[in-house]
């Protein structure tokens, strides 16, 4: 079983999230994609954050593909940092191959995440192109630090077989929608 993990606040979820999900499902050959709706992002202000239950309901309404599973297990686990959450996910699902999915807009600040190197050394990572972030890998500390671990996007379908660190940058259609813009911030 190959599962993509796509985390975020989804505040609100939008067509751009669904586009990233569609690209990940198709290009990575995923059996499932888990939308990990986080209670809050330690790197973002919490003002304007809709209640978790509301964001989950909105995500479920948007996730029309049956392979997409909307989860909020980060809340149940009591973790607030991605590295800790992913550690628990891996520990509880030892026979599953996971790929961490992120938009290219997050690649720029990935080095600010707690234990970001541990994430990259534990999970293959698929970075999906986002408007204005296509060249983010050129200045990303993660991309530079793990340059030798980059997998050509033509081989994205076998990324799950690669021993981490392994990552790829997937180009494709991009949506200009963003949660920040939809909130009017």
From TrEMBL:
<feature type="domain" description="Cytidyltransferase-like">
    <location>
        <begin position="5"/>
        <end position="183"/>
    </location>
</feature>
<dbReference type="Pfam" id="PF01467">
    <property type="entry name" value="CTP_transf_like"/>
</dbReference>
<keyword id="KW-0547">Nucleotide-binding</keyword>
<comment type="similarity">
    <text>Belongs to the NadD family.</text>
</comment>
<comment type="pathway">
    <text>Cofactor biosynthesis; NAD(+) biosynthesis; deamido-NAD(+) from nicotinate D-ribonucleotide: step 1/1.</text>
</comment>
<keyword id="KW-0808">Transferase</keyword>
<dbReference type="InterPro" id="IPR005248">
    <property type="entry name" value="NadD/NMNAT"/>
</dbReference>
<keyword id="KW-0520">NAD</keyword>
<dbReference type="InterPro" id="IPR014729">
    <property type="entry name" value="Rossmann-like_a/b/a_fold"/>
</dbReference>
<keyword id="KW-0067">ATP-binding</keyword>
<protein>
    <recommendedName>
        <fullName>Probable nicotinate-nucleotide adenylyltransferase</fullName>
        <ecNumber>2.7.7.18</ecNumber>
    </recommendedName>
</protein>
<dbReference type="GO" id="GO:0004515">
    <property type="term" value="F:nicotinate-nucleotide adenylyltransferase activity"/>
</dbReference>
<keyword id="KW-0662">Pyridine nucleotide biosynthesis</keyword>
<keyword id="KW-0548">Nucleotidyltransferase</keyword>
<comment type="function">
    <text>Catalyzes the reversible adenylation of nicotinate mononucleotide (NaMN) to nicotinic acid adenine dinucleotide (NaAD).</text>
</comment>
<dbReference type="InterPro" id="IPR004821">
    <property type="entry name" value="Cyt_trans-like"/>
</dbReference>
């Amino acid at each position: 079983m190959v599962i993509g993990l796509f985390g975020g606040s989804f505040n609100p979820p939008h067509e751009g999230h669904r586009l990233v999900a569609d690209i990940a499902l198709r290009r990575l050959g995923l059996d499932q994609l888990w939308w990990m709706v986080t209670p809050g992002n330690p790197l973002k202000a919490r003002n304007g954050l809709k209640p978790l239950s509301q964001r989950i309901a909105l995500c479920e309404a948007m996730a029309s593909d049956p392979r997409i599973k909307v989860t909020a297990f980060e809340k149940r686990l009591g973790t607030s940092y991605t590295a800790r959450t992913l550690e628990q996910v891996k520990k509880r699902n030892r026979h599953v191959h996971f790929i961490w999915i992120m938009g290219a807009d997050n690649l720029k600040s990935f080095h600010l995440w707690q234990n970001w190197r541990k994430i990259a050394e534990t999970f293959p990572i698929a970075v999906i192109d986002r408007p204005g972030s296509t060249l983010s890998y050129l200045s990303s500390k993660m991309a530079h630090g793990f340059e030798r671990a980059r997998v050509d996007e033509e081989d994205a379908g076998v990324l799950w077989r690669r021993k981490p660190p392994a990552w790829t940058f997937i180009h494709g259609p991009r949506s200009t929608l963003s949660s920040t813009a939809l909130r009017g911030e």
